[in-house]
Every structure is written in C-alpha cells, then in structure tokens.
Design a protein that fits this description.
- The chain has 308 residues and is of the alpha/beta class.
- It has two domains: 175 residues, NAD(P)-binding Rossmann-like Domain (Rossmann fold), CATH 3.40.50.720; 90 residues, N-(1-d-carboxylethyl)-l-norvaline Dehydrogenase, domain 2.
- Helices cover 53% and strands 12% of the residues.
- An eight-stranded mixed sheet has the order 3-2-1-4-5-6-7-8, sandwiched between helices.
- Helix 1 crosses helix 2.
C-alpha cells in the first residue's frame, strides 16, 4: 500500500492515522509540537482497541506498527503518495504550510487539507504545484465517520481529485465530490442550517436545548444515520420526492422565506442558550462523553457493516 504523510497530530491527525493504518497504508505522522507527537501513539492505540472491541479491526499491534512518528516535515513527506494536512484553521497558517509542502514534495504527491471551511483557492493560488492541491474534509472523528468531502480549487487537476478519491476509498472512507468551491463545503453548511434553526428555536423559548437534542437524537438522527434527506422524503409520501414536495412544499417555502436571523449567533443569544444548556444533561467529563460517543459510533459502524 502507498505511504501517507499526516501533518498534525491532534484529534483529526490521530484519527486519520487510524484510518490509513488499519487499511494497510504506511503512515508517517508529524507535528511541530513534540508533546503532541509523543502523545499520539497512546491515543491511536486507544482508538484501535475500541474498534477491536466491536470487531472492526483485528491485529492492533500490527496496525500500530504501520504508524511512524517523525520530527520533521521533510521526513514525513518523503515518498508519500498523499499528504493530509490537519493544522491550524487559519488561512495564514495553511498558506505557509502548503508553500512548504509544495516545495518539499515531488510533483506526483497529492496535497490535501482537512480544513473544515476554508476553500483551497484561498491558500494555494500562488503555488507552482497548485494543480495537485485540494481539500479532503473529514468529519470528526474520521476513523468512525467515513465521509470525506473532496473539493478542489478552480485550478485543481480533475485527475488529482480522482486519484485522491481512490486513495480515500482504498482506506475505507466514503469520498464525495464537491463540484464548486463553497465555504464550509456541504456537510458543514447543512449542519450550519440545522444549528441556526436550533439556536433560534431555543432562543425564542420554543423548546429547551435538551429537548431539541432529543428531537434530533431520537428523531431525525435515527433516520439520517442511514438515509439522507432525499431518500427520507422519498419514503414519506406515496409518490416519492415530487409528491412530498407537492404536499409539504408550502410549509417549506414559508420556512425558507423566514430563515433564522444572524442575531441567533450574537453574544446575547449565545449567552441565553449557554445558560439554558447549563453543561447539558450528562454530568460526565468531556473526555468521558467523547469516549462514549466514539464507542457508540463504533457500534453503529459495526451495525451498518453488518447490514450491507
């Protein structure tokens, strides 16, 4: 299998290491923070043990052996087919890092960013090798949520996007192509629409934050764990999508004409929502809640694999 270089040993970089190593890739992981790099193997091992508990991986030591932590960028990218950058979420940081990567890597190496919202044209425009740069946006944590959004700049070579998609697919991810640059790509724009309406409903006193979360977790989220919105509405009216739109289009048109105002993200609205949330109904620590989230996602992944 090819070698993949991972730049950044934080939450996303470590999770990418699990993704590629469990699929048989050789992984080189680097970070400018020695402490983050030193801590990464323990976090990766913990994630792999959780996957093993659900029958999703078998030989944890063999997978761990495929991940090599290296101190420099040059060592990490040597001979890599794909470089996956998971650094700070600022244009300036990505411009500097991609300039360095473009200078270090041979022309055939694909340079991908894990950025959540910044389009590739904002940090690759001046690079000699800009045609091999794209966004490969994962969902946190990518070793448990497999979709990865591929979005190139206007100058990205379509063959590069195809090659990147093949590598992600070989690693067990689900690549989707975003055909036009748009801030936040697809997933975060959908999430943003839901969040804005959720903030409005809570801020206006329609529902409590806890009950809103229950509405999603015990309602929309159950369907959305295996059906997208179009597949969902196709089953919610006898005549499919067109019939659903004919039946309920009036309501959705009125809703679209009355979107959540930007003020729902203002400091005062956020303060009221934070006060109403009050830490949430689960008293466990954030680390424990993240561990339980990951365990439930692993169980869901195992279930979905069993159903295919």
């Amino acid at each position: 299998m090819p070698t993949v270089a991972l730049v950044g040993a934080g939450l996303i970089g470590r999770s990418w290491a699990v993704v590629f190593a469990r699929a048989g890739f050789a992984v080189r992981l680097t970070d400018r923070d020695p402490a983050a790099l030193a801590a990464a193997p323990g976090h990766i091992a913990e994630a792999l043990r959780q996957l093993a508990a659900h029958g999703l991986v078998e030989d944890v030591p063999a997978i761990l052996a495929r991940v090599q932590g290296v101190p420099t960028l040059a060592e990490a990218v040597a001979g890599a087919a794909l470089v996956q950058e998971s650094g700070p979420e600022t244009v300036e940081a990505k411009q500097a890092l991609f300039a360095e990567l473009d200078a270090l890597c041979p022309p055939g190496t694909i340079l991908a960013s894990s950025t959540s919202a910044i389009v590739a044209s904002r940090f690759t425009e001046d690079l000699p090798g800009r045609a091999r740069c794209l966004v490969g946006h994962p969902v946190n944590p990518p070793h448990l949520v497999p979709v990865v959004e591929l979005c190139g700049a206007p100058w990205t070579d379509p063959a590069v996007i195809a090659r990147a998609g093949a590598l992600y697919a070989a690693a067990g991810q689900v690549p989707v192509t975003v055909h036009k640059e748009v801030e936040g790509f697809v997933l975060n724009r959908l999430q943003g629409a839901v969040l804005s309406e959720a903030f409005r409903l809570v801020a206006e006193g329609v529902v409590s934050p806890a009950d809103l979360d229950r509405t999603v977790a015990e309602g929309l989220g159950l369907r959305w764990s295996f059906l997208g919105p179009f597949a969902t509405i196709d089953l919610n009216a006898p005549g499919g999508v067109s019939d659903y739109a004919a039946r309920y289009g009036g309501f959705y048109r009125r809703l679209a004409a009355d979107p959540a105002p930007p003020e729902v993200w203002d400091a005062e609205s956020l303060r009221r929502i934070a006060d109403a949330w009050n830490g949430g109904p689960d008293p466990a620590s954030p680390d424990e809640r993240a561990r339980r989230r990951d365990a439930r996602l692993a169980a869901l992944m195992a279930h979905k694999r069993a159903q295919t």
